[in-house]
Each structure stands twice: as C-alpha cells, then as structure tokens.
Give the backbone structure.
Amino acid sequence: MSYGHGGDVGQTGVVSSGSPGAAGPAPSGALRPRPGDVLRLWQRGVQTVVRAARAEPQASVPMLLGAHLGPEAGSWPVVADEWAEYDHVNVQAALDVWLADPARKWELFGLTGVQHGMLSLGDLLVEQPHIWQRLGSVAMVDLPAGPDGEVRTCVRCGLWLFEEAGERWALLLWLNEHGPSGTRVRLEILRADPARASDTLAQLRRLALERNVYRGQVIGFGDEMFGPQGAGLSFLRRPQLAARELVLADGVLELVERQVLGIARQREQLRAAGQHLKRGVLLHGPPGSGKTQTVRYLLGRLKGVTVVVLSGRALYAIREACSIARALAPAAIVVEDVDLIAEDRGEMPGTHPLLFQLLNEMDGLGEDVDVAFILTTNRADLLEPALAARPGRVDQAVNIALPDLDGRRRLLELYRGQLDVQANLDGVLQRTEGVTASFLKELMRRCALAAAEERATNNNKTPLVIEDHHLQAGLDELLDDRHQLTRSIIGGATNATTQ
Ligand SMILES: Nc1ncnc2c1ncn2[C@@H]1O[C@H](COP(=O)(O)OP(=O)(O)OP(=O)(O)O)[C@@H](O)[C@H]1O
Ligand SMILES: [Mg+2]
C-alpha cells in the first residue's frame, strides 16, 4: 500500500453557483443562507455538473472530481493498493460485493486516454495540459472465473464517486501496464481521512480473498503468460481418473497417497500435535511410465484443494504459485518436469537461480501450511545434488518404474477397452519387457485398427476381436528396427524382443 498526495488544487468555481467553494460573503437578513440551504444548493450543483459530464463527452475529469469532492480534495492524500494481473477478477469480485452495500451511493465513470501512461487520482484533480484522460465509456473486460467457461465482467478503468454517511470520496481502478513487474491492477482512493481509505482497501483485500475465484480450483500458469493477454493464469479441468486407470507396482500408489492425501486428511490432528503439514513428493522414473498419470489421479482425489500447475516456461511463476498456495491453502503445487530448470547443473553448484528459487520458495512457505509440492522428473540424477544439498524440501522420492509382467498384464487389460481379446497374452507379455505403458496402449490401438480393417465395415456392432496374429503383427511392427524412432517416442525398450 502506498501513500501519495492529492496535489494543490484550489479550483473554486468548478461547481455551479451555490457551492460552498464559490459562495461569496453571506448576505444579511432574510437572504442569509441556512446550513440546509447550502447543502441543498451544493447537491444541486453536483447534480448539474454530473449531468453535464454525462451529456458532454469532453467534460473534464477535474471538473467532475471537483464538483463531487469540493475544493479541499486537493489537500487530501491518495492511498493506493496494487494487485497482480491475475487477481483482477478477484478485485472485481470484491468490488461487486462491496458496491452492493446499500449504505453506499456511488456512480461509475469511464476514462479515455488511459493508455497514454501513468494515471493518478492526484493528477486527475487538476486541469493540466499534459493530462490525456477524458471522461468516456467505462472500459470492461470479461475475465475467466471458472473451469467451465464462467466469466466475470471486470472494469479495466473506472472512476467511482462515492457518498457514504455524508462523506464523499473517489476510487480509481486502472491497469498499470508500464510497471517494472508486468501489468498490475491499481486501486487508488482519494478520501479526506487516509486511515479510512486504508481501511477500505484492506476490506477489499479481505473480500477478494474470501471471494477468490481460484479457491478450490485447478489453475495453471501457462506459456501464454508471455503472450499478449499477459494474465498468465488459466483454469484447468480437474482430471478424474479411476484407480484402475493407473497401473503402478504394488505399494507405490499407497506411498504417494499417504504423503499427499493422508496428511491432508489428518490435517487437524497433525496440526494439534505440532506436526508440520507442508510436504514435497518427487515422482521420478523413465518417460511414459506414468508420473503425469499419477499426478492426474492425485488431482482428482484432491477435491476442494486449490492446485497450481506449473510446467515448461511457467516455472518462472513459482513465486506467484507459492503466494497463491499460501493464500488459498489447503493447496498443492505441481511442478512438472522439474529437471527443465536444473539442466545446467554441470556448472557451479548453486548457480541455477530457478531450481534454487523453487527450493527457497518451498522452504519459505510456513511449515504448518497445508501445501503439498508434487514434483515430477525423468532426470532425477540432475536434481539429486541440489536436493541433497538442501534437505527437507522433498520428503518422499517415489520411483515410478516401467511396468513389470503383472503391470503389463493389467495395462493390456486397461487399454483393451471394449476389444474382445481372444489370444494368448503370455507371449506378448514376454516380448514386451521394458516397454512403457504408452507402448502397450499404442499396441492395442494398432491391433484394433488391423481388426477393424479386416472386418466387413457395414453394421457390425459387436466388439472388434483381437486374435494372436493381430498382436504378433502389431508387436513386430512396433519392434521392427525400421520403426526405431516411433519405438523410442512411445517408450519401447531396447531389450524388447523382435521375435
Ligand atoms: N502407470 C500407468 N498406468 C496407466 N497408464 C499409463 C501409465 N503410465 C503411462 N500411462 C499412459 O501413457 C501416457 C503417458 O504417460 P505419462 O504422461 O504419465 O508419462 P510420464 O511418466 O509423465 O512421462 P514423461 O517423463 O515423459 O513426462 C498416459 O497418458 C497414459 O495413457
Ligand atoms: Mg510427464
């Protein structure tokens, strides 16, 4: 929160005759105005100017402010608060509640020419040649407010004039796109008593937290944070995976669930017993073995928990992710492919800012905050030195290995879908040692395609039948040396046998 100053304005005469500022010496006798007269005339003056401002697009902002606030406003301080751009929708959610209070009378005005630079309520009070802002229509934008396409219409730039219990004041909302840390949502209040202005801003902060549209949702910082929109945070659908859709070696899922979900379930008891709730789980293993699949399963089970997903370039948003998680806990932060920020570990240890920033942020979050960090990597070797050098951030490393024989059998059963498999799978299971789940998924689809091509196309609604020769042909094709690139992409093992 910052304090500015309204500047020196002495604009008597901006309101029409009868305003206290423009009143001359009081006449004597019957014409001497009583306090009630002054108030009535003042209000009529304000109405006249506001009406004129509405009708006249070129009416000046200082004129409007002067008419509403009176000449003393020039000596009032401006109290401001700033928000990250992704919180714009929450600021509006707070304002919507706050403006609905019948104790407050307000009018909203739009400003044009805002793109020409910095805006300040203090500057707007004074007629100045270099001020571009004029009264105009209110700039609005529809911002995402939920995972199913919900939006909230938000004011991008607006000036509210308030009257509350006989007190008048003004609030300005605008987007500062010229700041050093990206676009910020700025609220400024011009009010006689700065303590009341601060109190209003604090109330809006509380309401924005209470009404936060991201609470309990899965949200992700994506690459678009560098795009023209710049908001960077989007709603993701919470995945729903049945337990049978995740095939892991015995005991592995239980271990992960216990650490991520179990601690959340026993939150109150653990807290009461003075135990820390913050936790970090690292899922590591070869590509295509089911790390992301495990995360998707966990997110489905973390109902009502706010989840921030970071992947790729969005890892730069780790600080914002932690601040959201702290504010909206219980929360989880998923950092996919965390090795991407540790690639140059070959250089001096401790020189990679992002990985260490991540570890620092993990450390900085209070111990008793219910936040689970879920990290994934297929290059645990790259992370190990950094994690070992700073113990305590990750308290459980879980190896998501390639499927064993029983796992491969369950995966074939899973990816069979509605296919009618009339074949002996033993041979396939032997030949696929060391392949990934995605390899087996693709094998099943190839068999289905071959069976579909064989079958008469018309009106046969029975499930496709997979026989031995489909499986053998599919395997031969995928394991053929000529398809080595395909095999490596879908995770075929080097030791899987071609015959
Ligand atoms: N253990 C598994 N159980 C069920 N399906 C799986 C499993 N592993 C992988 N799959 C299937 O293969 C696809 C790719 O797997 P996933 O994205 O989880 O791999 P990953 O381990 O995250 O790989 P990477 O290291 O490349 O990110 C999944 O969408 C899923 O269809
Ligand atoms: Mg993955």
